[in-house]
């Protein structure tokens, strides 16, 4: 028997139940992983609340790092391998789990498992946003909302290392200081500044060619107003809820804008894409271009409080559940 978090119905953090479950031996192509650290991500709250529906009852959580303790026939991993995952299915909030080996990545030597669990999903998200959704180049300027969050802090470092000018938005001065320390050239406190107006000031009235928006409803219109003509809005999350339906004529009126709604799952659909993305992330952690900021650790039994803190914007950087 192992301890795992399950939900029988969608709702608030109170629906998260830590129970004991029976875990079978891994089948063909599968491995069993003992989780050492579990990544807490905002998408987990979407699954819990029902914003992104899952068949119920279900496990929850996408990201963790640990050690392979059993191997099924045909799996390309070995007992003792240090591995991490973020697109292998649901149920990471657990002590142990069976997973398809093809959706796991080996953790690079020199990276501890807590760091791996804190960086893989967020880092792979930054990788596809910066390198493949809109390949950001030196000399370009971009906007990223929620700059002091786990994805935001990694984004600022990566984009800055590319030579881009990075504008971030935050809600407090403490978060602004954190963002500046992680690569942001300009930080706008939306609690008392007009974001679109400040972006226009910074860019000499032109706007930016790309906005990366993981917040959703609260920032959607602002993001469009920050863009230059033929600019691209990358809407990759809904932390504040889903935006209202969009009249496509708005994109024409604001300058022939583009919009995309990418997901990590589609950008790591193949084993090769997943492992290359992870390798790019781990390479930057090892050479110091990405510093992983673990600010909160919770016992697995305290998962409900972890979700409350995440949704109330009390957290900064990355958060972990420790089984």
From TrEMBL:
Belongs to the zinc-containing alcohol dehydrogenase family. Quinone oxidoreductase subfamily. Residues 11-321 form the Enoyl reductase (ER) domain. GO terms for cellular component: cytosol. SMART domains: PKS_ER. The keyword Cell membrane does not apply. The lineage of its organism: Bacteria, Pseudomonadati, Pseudomonadota, Gammaproteobacteria, Cellvibrionales. The keyword NADP applies. InterPro entries: ADH-like_C (IPR013149), ADH-like_N (IPR013154), ER (IPR020843), GroES-like_sf (IPR011032), NAD(P)-bd_dom_sf (IPR036291), QOR-like (IPR047618). Keywords: NADP, Oxidoreductase. This is NADPH:quinone reductase. GO terms for molecular function: mRNA 3'-UTR AU-rich region binding; NADPH binding; quinone reductase (NADPH) activity. It catalyses: 2 a quinone + NADPH + H(+) = 2 a 1,4-benzosemiquinone + NADP(+). Its EC number is 1.6.5.5.
